Amino acid sequence: MHSVKIGILGLGTVGGGTVNVLTRNAKEISRRAGRDIEIAWAADRDLDSPKICKTDGISLTDDAMAIINNPEIEIVVELIGGTGIARELVMKAIENGKHVVTANKALIALHGNELFAKAQEKGVTISFEAAVAGGIPIIKAMREGLAGNRIEWLAGIINGTGNFILTEMRDKGRDFAEVLTEAQALGYAEADPTFDVEGIDAAHKLTIMASIAFGIPLQFNKAYTEGISKISQEDVKNAGELGYRIKHLGIAKKTPQGIELRVHPTLIPHRRLIANVDGVMNAILVHGDAVGSTLYYGAGAGSDATASAVVADIVDVVRALTSDPENRVPHLAFKPDSLDNTPIMPMSQVVTSYYLRIATEDKLGVLADITRILSVNGISIEAIVQKEPEQQGGMVPLIMLTHEVLEKNMDAAIMQIEALSTVKDSVMRIRMESLG
Ligand code: HSE
Predict the structure, then answer these.
(1) For residue 307, how far is its CA from the centre of ligand 1 (angstroms)?
(2) Above 80 in pLDDT, residue 391?
(3) 30 FRET partner, CA 20 to 30 A, in 81, 150, 407, 431?
């Protein structure tokens, strides 16, 4: 059988890794796919810059559209990233009847609905395993491996840069800004690192996973996103003393009121396996009604690790080339006409417990004022620690853990506490999850 010709768009970290893996493991890969896979063309906007892969035997161009319009190419592998030119190229590739493999999480999270509809119309596939958690085959696991389950919730550490920062802060007492600079130098951070630290990158990935878990359209604009830039060394230490670790989690949960879709720093009990996922590693905990909790762990970024997922997608597409489009695994796990409209809940309706850090004056009645406000708002305290002020006569840090409460009630309580004349700084609130 003749080989399948593919075209790769972008020869950066992931594109270069994909060429390397496809070349290095060519024999094994064609034994699995049933056909040889030939990288016929590759496009890069700067062909003169040094590449991490050899390009012998590959026709090179700086015009990605030439690959999209090349009738010989059956699969386009989009590894450019972003939602500008990448979106245009992917849409055109689909219109030209080509299958697409992409690692582009922003593209899928923001424009997946229209791209999948177009792909459906044209009878082609868009594969995007590498878009979520790099090398971890989480899309395949949820879409196929857990197909017998009602997925109830999932929680993931899905940004390596953020996890690296929090790990270094905890283990080495380092400051946020210094660690971020190192993460950028290591090549894990997004082009705009605020995407990592403010949770946008994680929200892209969470949006995709939630759609596959619950069979809903992609709704990135409804995800609640809170970053880790306000987490201080003090919070990391307090969490540790109370038996918790702070992780930047993406959480999607189905409740009777709707679906929670949220990314925020979270205290989780230190004995949980996922609390021990450190450095740039990623992990996703998925809870199905039949299987219970399952944990997927691995490299969430990096050249070869992400290429592993890209190549697996290419193999899947090659296997499906001759299959009837109606019988392929649906993009979002559920048949397109079976997606449902369960609403995404606003954050104010979410119920969680909280860690609070309140800096108060050391005066008679302060604690009574604060506990009264919490009680009026229906918030029950689970633990309370009053720490020594850092200097004589300074503010007293008050650390509280609460039982579960509606976010709206906590918002109201925090506003009232911050209005007290004895409370000077804003209240630090971090949500807690037991993940049991
Ligand atoms: N910037 C991302 C991370 C890369 O740090 O996890 C992988 O999506």
Answers:
(1) 14
(2) no
(3) 81
Q: How many domains, in total, are found in the chain?
A: 3
Using only C-alpha atoms, what is the Rg of the chain? 24
Q: 371: domain CATH number? A: 3.30.70.260
Same domain flag for 52 and 102? yes
* Dist. CA 341–CA 338, nearest whole Å: 10
pTM score of the predicted model: 0.96
Q: Which residue has the tokens 């690296």?
A: 164
| Centroid of ligand 1 to alpha carbon of 14 (angstroms) | 12
127 and 219 part of one domain: no
* CATH (domain of 261): 3.30.360.10
Pocket lining for ligand 1, CB < 6 angstroms:
134, 159-161, 188-190, 196, 201, 300-301
Q: Which candidate in 105, 205, 247, 253 is catalytic? A: 205
Statement to judge: residues 317 and 288 lie in one domain: no
Q: 341-374: b or e for each residue (b if 16 or more CB lie within 10 Å)?
A: eeebbebeebbbbbbbbbbbeeeeebbebbeebb
The two structure tokens encoding residue 247: 């992780």
| pLDDT at res. 65 | 98
> Best of 14, 159, 200, 205 to mutate for ligand 1, by most ligand atoms within 8 A of CB?
159
User: Is residue 105 annotated as a catalytic residue, yes or no?
Assistant: no
Mean pLDDT of the residues in the chain: 95
Do residues 224 and 368 share a domain?
A: no
Q: Are 129 and 147 found together in one domain?
A: no
Express each pLDDT in 103-136 by its tens digit: 999 999 999 999 999 999 999 999 999 999 999 9
- Nearest residue CA, atom 7 of ligand 1? 301
For residue 345, tell me if it sits in a domain: no
Residue type, 132: V
Residue 312 belongs to a domain: yes
- Whether residues 264 and 147 share a domain: the answer is yes
- Shared-domain flag, residues 427 and 369: yes
Test site for ligand 1: of 139, 186, 188, most ligand atoms within 8 A of the Cβ: 188
Strands 126-127 and 75-78 come out as unpaired
